[in-house]
What we know:
- With 935 residues, chain A is an alpha/beta fold.
- In chain A, helix 6 (229-242) packs parallel to helix 12 (399-412).
- The longest helix of chain A has 18 residues, at 92-109.
- Chain A is globular, with a radius of gyration of 27 Å.
- The relative contact order of chain A is 0.15.
- Chain B has 265 residues and is of the alpha+beta class.
- Chain B folds into 2 domains: 12-210, 2-Layer Sandwich (Alpha-Beta Plaits); 233-264, no CATH class.
- Chain B contains 8 helices and 11 strands.
- In chain B, strand 2 and strand 3 (54-55) form a beta hairpin.
- The N and C termini of chain B lie far apart (80 Å).
- In chain B, 42% of the residues are buried.
- The interface between A and B is large, with 112 and 99 residues.
Amino acid sequence: MTEPAVDTSPKTWDEIKTTTCYMCACRCGIKVYLKNGTVKYIDGNPNHPVNKGIICGKGAAGIKQHYSPARLSKPLVRVGERGSGEFREIEWEEALRTATMWLSEVRNTDPKKLAFFTGRDQSQGLTGWWAAQFGTPNYAAHGGFCSVNMAAAGLYTFGGSFWEFGEPDWKHTKYFMLFGVAEDHASNPIKKALGKLKAKGAKIISINPIRTGYSAIADEWIGIRPGTDGLFVGALIHELISAQKIDGEYLLRYTNSPWLIVENPGGADDGLFARNAQGSALIWDGHSGTPMPALSPDAEPKLMGRYKLPDGRRVVTSFQLIAERFLTPEWAPEAVSERCGVPVETIKRIAAELARTAFEEQIELDVPWTDHLGRYHEKMLGRPVSMHAMRGISAHANGFQTCRTIHMLQILLGTIDVPGGFRYKPPFPKPPPPGVKPAGKPGQVKPNTPLPGPPLGFVTSPEDLLVDAEGTPQRIDKAYSWDAPLAAHGMMHMVITNAAKKDPYSIEVLFMYMANMSWNSAMNVPDTIKYLTQKEPDGSYTIPKIIYSDAYSSEMVHYADLILPDTTYLERWDCISMLDRPISEADGPADSIRQPVVEPDRDVRPFQTMLLDLGNRLGLPGMTRTDGSPRYPGGYADYIVNHERAPGIGPLAGFRGPNGKAQGRGAPNPEQLQHYIDNGCHWYYELPDHMKYYRHVNWAYLDWATFFGFMGKPEPVIHQLYCEPLQKFRLAAQGHGKIIPPTEHRKRIQDHFDPIPFWYPPFEGEMVSGEEFPMHAVTQRPMAMYHSWGSQNSWLRQILGRNWLYMAREMAAKLRIADGDWVTVTSHHGQIKGQAKLMDGVNPETVWTWNAIGKRSGTWGLQAGADEAKKGFLLNHLISELLPEREGGYRYSNSDPVTGQAAWYDLRVRVEKAADQSAVSEPQFATLKKLRRAK
Amino acid sequence: MTSLPPPSAKKLGLVIDLDTCVGCQACVTSCKEWNTQGYSEPLTDTTPYGADASGVWLNRVHGYEVKEQGQDQSRIVHFPRSCLHCETPACVTVCPTGASYKRAEDGIVLVNPETCIGCKLCSWACPYGAREYDVSHGVMKKCTLCVDRIYNENLEVEDRQPACVKACPTGARHFGDLGDADSKVSQLVAERGGYDLLPEMGYKPVNKYLPPRARRDATNQKAEALPKPDGSAFDRLFVWADKLLSGKQATVRASDLDHSSKLEG
């Protein structure tokens, strides 16, 4: 029988264009295959530094995101009540005129009455600048409910962090610890690296209450109790310090371990670094027996001890205080084991394995380098222990201090930016913390005036807070107030609640971009919907005007008054900028662009181009020439090329200057975008070998980074194990200084602003009855979904179209719950119903489900009866955005008290078999009507 | 009944590493997007935005939790499933029209959509559940090993591999000639103990699976412990700290001075 002829070389495309994926936050390079202007196929770009040709389950389903029936198609203005779905289609000119009218009224009177929050925005370099130009301090993206406590913990400790800020040295590491759910950031690089680690025999430990995702292939799974990671890591520190298995040389040279701290209980300088007249912190020189500046090349600093300064002050080294804390029996494995749910022997064994790997399997690279004090090193020494952490740490109210504890473990082992350890990605390291301060103090917000600085930054003392003389918050989300002093990414999860309660004040316009704040991005969904539709006695809405921009018909669209439809990611220009969260590799800086690979077939505009247009219509100085004409008439692409943040420094670092030969710093180059396109839509500069490690103290690197604009000056980034800014807040709580907290805030500041990492129980568990709510409830991130975006995707929803409540087999037996039973989950705040699935790989006192699968009926282009709405559910309904009342009646937000990070995973629940076994999840919200688009 | 060609020297197939598959579904959607516009076009989805959405997929990944004897912890195994391109495939021999066939050249098992009558005998015969019926076309569809990619002269050389293999982020999927004992995939199978699915059925699958490696956890690894001498840990720490050199000379470092013995001293 002859075989049929098969065409083995079909050409199903007529063109291939490169661009950058937006199916999650990973930002891989992709190749888009097009036929007659239609997207046929998307795969990974082999030359791209992030993914090197691979693509993930989401990225390869991008076609279905691009052609989703949930896409918005024309600007809309609301004509019915909020939530009714009744809109009128309008032309862009009318939409922009309306927005300009609403916004200019605010800007002419009180710019802070605009709250501008931008969700999972990848253009924060632009949006933050726009907010500052407008003059409102009320700006942030989603970082406040994502991971700001971890970002802050890292930036205040060693000038870097996880994710976009750094990564393990995948090539050399031999022992990798993965904390918490990590599937949604740097997802392809981590997956690629895990495959390599497995192949070369490195050990992978996963610390996560749930064994799914990457944990599935780990060598060892530590099914820890949620919120207790800090105890576990502290016990490892206890073990390592007890056995002196720490890197003393690293601590002396590159950390503030030997810096001297004033011991003057009750005094205004207690706990601050002893400094000389020039302001330099001091160490105790063992050779001369005198204090010397910390960065003296000739000193022999003492790591431990108490000393008396010539002026009579008593001082102690930072490390002495750290050792005194962690050597106490309360940090012993025996003391923490039960609370963590981790056996004593396991903690001890892991400590021994860490010590063995770090100190007996030391790596030496034959790469000479010179440190910040001019000392020449023949080799780069490395300790092949590395770590990565994400939401399991961040989504708890103790996440800032827990993350500091993890960083302390990394630093005690001498593993930051050394071969085999955890590596910075340029532009990091930055000074700990970076020097930029938030603007928006009283007097800085004025009609028709830009803010004197960016709305987000890093406070280092109470003087930097955005509060008035009475201590009242100046921002609508209460970021940078005594509620959350180090809220470096704002607190988007509090905006709607605070605006509805007019606490601290009312707002006039809420302007949001791609943030599903009436559903899966909100805590307490039922009340959030109430706040969005709440009216004043005169019948007007309490939040008078809501402008929303998104590409898709999410749950939020129904609650807005003016809809500005965005393009999909394949229809736009974008830049993944060094001024925002770049795609750099540890080996060198990188940035990238999106180019429009297809033209929109709808009446939509790219959000960033629209925002620049709006800025010009409002007359914002950065977007308007003196004659009133737009500064960037070519829209976002024009801005990307021609905007300069400092002379020669713009959104893209590559192909600058005449001919596109300059890198980092150089005049705007009109051909820059074409250069990027010719290079596969990215730019990457690989650092020379002598600048690839020890960059916090690497003379050559620091010089180079200063030229590139990554640092203000070439100064070393000394790791701050002892975090002095925290102590300044504590002193304020004790009544010292000019800016002191109102009495009711003092205890909270005193308790949580410990300059040495410590652990405290997550708040919710402390405030509700353990008997009534004995279980923890958390979410995990499915690898094939990114937040709510995945459910509109006809391929991805076939893979995961609904969620279950997973629980431990043994616990289910005790509760008489069988696999497949419908169960109620009750918190102090609410109740939901979902279907149970039983498993072994879960901490017995924990239940969990997939994040953001549950949808509201009638949204995202899904038909009535879709499983996502009928059987799917959210834990969000159980989570209050406010903690229970404290004495005096004040309710703090359900957040980390240091940084304002939303504490999603502090949730405590009880689980019972539902009386009603019908196969429908609860609560079921009224079906949102299909958007009615009268002409 | 359809007859098989003489055994081919070249046996193209996949080697799938169950030790590194994290179940991310990259191979699943990459397969779908290529093949819905390639040889098997289209891979139909029914009620894609309604309840019980379903569709034709040539590759699926299933997750199982397994508890093995002697292991403290259960294990989650992600198991990618697609046609194994058997050497003696029953799906071919049962085909009444000759639409199902095994290529003499490279051993790939294909369905000719022109002659397939959609009788489904092949899917009943396949013990691996590797074939899917496309209602809209009334024909059977299955993994083609991306026959329209691996030889495709319009693609870059590096792209001439099955879409699933190119996509796989953890590198768990390998493509090559399992008829050549010296090929990379054959060597991988030899090194890692690659195995056949359901060998007792006698269909001799070409695709192989690599078993999970032994985990270095408490069950499989010798317990280590840090030394715990008597006396005050704090005093010992102080003595240790006192001996530390500040490292004025950068090339000298505690680690160069027999760190381990010193630490315990």
